[in-house]
Amino acid sequence: MQISQVKSDAYYRAKVARHLASVGAPDADPTPLAEWAADVDREGRMRRSAIIDQTGAVIAECVRIGGGMRVGADYLTDEDAERYGLERTERGLAIAQLRRMLDRPLICVRHWEVASGSSPR
Predict the structure, then answer these.
(1) Residue 4 · residue 112 · CB < 8 Å
(2) How many CB atoms sit inside 10 A of residue 44's CB?
């Protein structure tokens, strides 16, 4: 049984809404990030993070390269690097470059922050 078969859309929306409120974006639309989190689960693309803007739109995706959770670094995916004309860049540098390019604030949300643990009440 795949993870997304166990978790409902309401689970992802609730987790994302709570996370967005905790990072100072309570009015951001949780739908794009909730859909991204569900897709990551459904497709088994673990070790991912999303770069989002203040509206909640998913701007880009990063993947952890290297061994284990404590070792390695997150990099912009090849697809997003190509889309924005960037080299495959470490997440922090990618956020800075995209922030300048798009002229808006961006943050990183790790998949586990919005797709693991119990559902918020």
Answers:
(1) no
(2) 9
pLDDT in tens, 95-110: 999 999 999 999 999 9
Helix, coil or strand: residue 20: helix
Could you tell me if 88 and 76 are in contact, meaning their C-beta atoms sit under 8 angstroms apart?
yes
Q: Position of tokens 């909730």?
A: 34
Phi, psi of 64 (to 5 degrees): -80, 125
Q: What are 119's two structure tokens?
A: 């559902």
Q: Does residue 63 contact residue 77 with C-beta atoms inside 8 Å?
A: yes
**What is residue 4's three-state secondary structure?**
helix
- Taking the complete model, does pTM exceed 0.70, yes or no? yes
Q: Show the DSSP H helices in the chain as ranges.
A: 3-6, 9-22, 31-43, 78-84, 91-102, 111-115
Q: Which of 27, 31, 85, 37 is nearest to 61 (CA)?
A: 37
